[in-house]
Design brief:
Shape: elongated
Distance between the termini: 32 Å
Order of helices and strands: HHHH
Strand content: under 5%
Number of helices: 4
Structural class: mainly alpha
Oligomer: single chain
Largest sheet: none
Length: 157
Amino acid sequence: MDPYLLALWLHILSSTVLFGTGIGTAFQMVWAMRTGKVETVHSVASGVVWADWLFTTPAGIAQPLTGLWLIYIAGYSFVEPWLLATYALYVLAFICWAPVVHLQIRIRDLAGAALATGAPLPDDARRLYRIWFALGWPAFAALAGVFWLMVSRPALW
């Protein structure tokens, strides 16, 4: 197989997994938190944490690797302005995503503790969720920007 087509396919596939899993798990978490049901929040947050480790993390690692591979194969300079913008947006998305993973784990654990004792969902879980929700928007916007730059490429500059 042509190395460029292989790199492009892996890059598109991993971006689809990264973006799709992110939106899908975010939707599930929002929907679960809206119920306020401890059982639902614990179950969904547990699944979201697993999805991040199984899908988002590997795709998030594959993205820059396949991206750099594509840049090399295509013969672009690694410091072209559109690529520098892409790197910055990807770093922004990561800076938002890293604490989100921790927040999801905390929400899962708080819901699990409440479930074990028959208590309602703690206010702390709701507070952490609001932070989680707020961090999701810049990450989403950053990745949407990366997609736009990948499609428009140097035609912008």
